[in-house]
Amino acid sequence: MHVVGVLVCDGVVPFDLGVIPQVFGTARDEAGNHLYEVVVCGAGPVLTEAGFTVTPAFGLDELARADTVIVPGIHSGGPVTDGTLPSDVRDTLLAAVARGARIVSICTAASVLAAAGLLDGRPAATHWAWAKRIGGLYPQVNWDFDVLFVDDGDVLTSAGVGAGVDLCLHIVRTDHGADVANRVARRCVVPPWRDGGQAQFIERPVPAAGGAGTEATRTWVLERLAEPVSLEEMAGHARMSVRTFTRRFRDETGLSPRQWLLRQRVEHARILLESTDLGVDAVARRAGLGSATALRQHLHATIGVAPSAYRRTFRHTG
Predict the structure, then answer these.
(1) Class of residue 215 by CB neighbours under 10 A (exposed 0-12, middle 13-18, buried 19+)
(2) Distance separating alpha carbons of residues 315 and 318, to the nearest angstrom
(3) Per-residue CA distances from 213 to 210, 223, 251, 255, 301 (Å)
(4) Rounded distance, CA 116 to CA 93, Å?
(5) The whole model's pTM is what?
(6) Which letter does DSSP use for residue 58 in this model?
(7) Given strand 2-7, what is the order of strands in its sheet?
(8) Is residue 2 predicted with pLDDT exceeding 90?
């Protein structure tokens, strides 16, 4: 069984801490068997940012057997104030990397990974509201404050709070396929995949009332992914000018209509590759990507693999 070790640091965010055992503890195969063992580890009782103390069931030594180490977000302590990190936490993370464990952070815990030197020169995400502070402390990291999470292979980082759910579900899906991840999402009563990035949640003036949003049009488009749908047709369906529609769409999703549509088509192609025996050309047509060549290009740009390799992986593990 895959062991997920949770490394709890002082100032931990309780929501981030609770997400990890909730998502991974819910993941089961079709026979009902647990797919992960979750062990919560720390150097002793830890004061949370909410003002109460939690006592991890295991010490840091237990992380030596973890296949994946996840650090939940923190709102205080050296990693987010002056770039320092307790030596025992640093040593634990470096030992996990040395043995090939997957390293994950939720929200501001990216600062913990950065303080350990694990994000130098790598892409990473964290909460947009901490961009100035954490970005300033760790300029050697290629921060992306717009996305919900970054999967850089052996190191994964997420934006704040709810994005931790997104990243944990992404890991379940990567490990065991869409069916398992979707069952987990249903059990947790959360969406299995959210559109757009955290840019849609950054504080900005609320759009003026008057007129419908773009949700109905997005639903309409999702029912027609195999068809060519132009920006003008989307705006027409929403009964808006192209300019107004584009602005409102970006306000609601954090993406332009074309970026969003491409993401939906790639996501639909992934589902078809996982759940059907359709040829690559047929998958591309049904997803509205036109050709197998286009599907290969977009899938490689999104997750770095070819359709055939993706299908082998997820048809085998799902």
Answers:
(1) exposed
(2) 6
(3) 9, 18, 10, 14, 30
(4) 7
(5) 0.68
(6) B
(7) 36-41, 2-7, 68-71, 102-105, 155-158, 149-151
(8) yes
